[in-house]
Specification:
Layout (H helix, E strand, L loop, with lengths): L18 H4 L2 H11 L4 H7 L2 H4 L14 H15 L7 E2 L1 H8 L3 H13 L3 E3 L4 E3 L4 H25 L2 H15 L6 H17 L4 H10 L5 H7 L2 H19 L3 H23 L3
Antiparallel strand pairs: 1-3, 2-3
């Protein structure tokens, strides 16, 4: 029965950590603050070169964060969360000064972001490109496939401890108030991280992370109605139940429906931009 979702064989020696816990500390701090709605320029000042270049104790490595990677990730997440809104002009010299880096890594990062479809050229520098709803829909469809498959694998491969964590996280979300936007965003990220990690498929989780959309996370969360928030939570609970029942078919279907529901809510929000 499970052969439709997994290939029997060796799994990683150690269970995967939820994606939010494996990212470098500087990137986790950035994601948390930007998704919570903090201003990009203030964050840039707090996370400038010196802090990002510190050795990441959690990773135990001695590699410094490449400047271009720092600039790229900061701008990518800021654009996708709406911390840098559509049409915002971006001048290489200003970005470099804000992050205390030279213009060379800024230019390289801008070119990567342009290739990603997030920036467009203007007369002087760059600007944040208006998101195309067709591209966003396609991205959500990719998420339906990837996240649905990962959820099915979690129903098969999750340990009893991982299932307990998923169920507990789901229940904890139900206790959050509708007005607790930052807490709801953080808990949502943590819950999905637990589910994806339970899939036991590192390459799949990496693909999900690369395709994950934070689009206007804080602003979008403010737009979501009480009914939609209740629907999302109900879907989370059904997904957790399917994983606990080790039913991959139901878990995948529910995960796909959940991604589609978030897209339909976002579509309404997009039309107001």
């Amino acid at each position: 029965m499970n052969g439709a979702w997994v290939i029997e064989g060796p799994l990683p020696r150690e269970r995967m950590m939820p994606s939010g816990q494996t990212a470098p500390s500087w990137l986790r701090k950035l994601e948390e603050r930007v998704i919570a709605g903090d201003d990009f320029w203030q964050i840039a000042g707090a996370l400038r070169q010196g802090e990002a270049q510190q050795v990441d104790a959690e990773k135990g490595g001695a590699q410094a964060v490449p400047f271009v990677e720092l600039v790229y990730e900061m701008l990518r997440i800021a654009i996708r969360t709406g911390a840098l809104s559509t049409g915002t002009p971006l001048i290489e010299a200003e970005i470099g000064e804000a992050l205390a880096v030279s213009r060379t890594p800024v230019r390289e990062a801008m070119q990567r972001l342009s290739a990603d479809g997030l920036l467009s050229r203007r007369k002087r520098g760059w600007e944040v490109r208006k998101l195309d709803l067709v591209q966003i829909r396609e991205s959500y469809e990719v998420r339906m496939a990837l996240e649905g498959f990962a959820t099915a694998q979690a129903a098969i491969r999750a340990s009893d401890e991982e299932i307990a964590s998923i169920v507990a996280s789901t229940r904890a979300r139900s206790e959050l108030g509708f007005e607790d936007i930052s807490d709801r965003l953080t808990s949502n990220r943590e819950l999905h991280g637990l589910i994806f990690a339970a899939s036991g498929n590192e390459r799949l989780v990496d693909s999900i992370r690369k395709n994950m959309q934070y689009y206007f996370a804080h602003r979008f969360a403010q737009f979501v109605s009480r009914e939609e928030a209740a629907l999302f939570q109900k879907q989370h609970e059904l997904i957790a139940d399917a994983i606990a029942a080790r039913d991959p078919r139901e878990a995948e279907l529910l995960a796909r429906q959940h991604v589609k529901s978030t897209y339909l809510a976002f579509e309404k929000f997009y039309k107001l931009l």
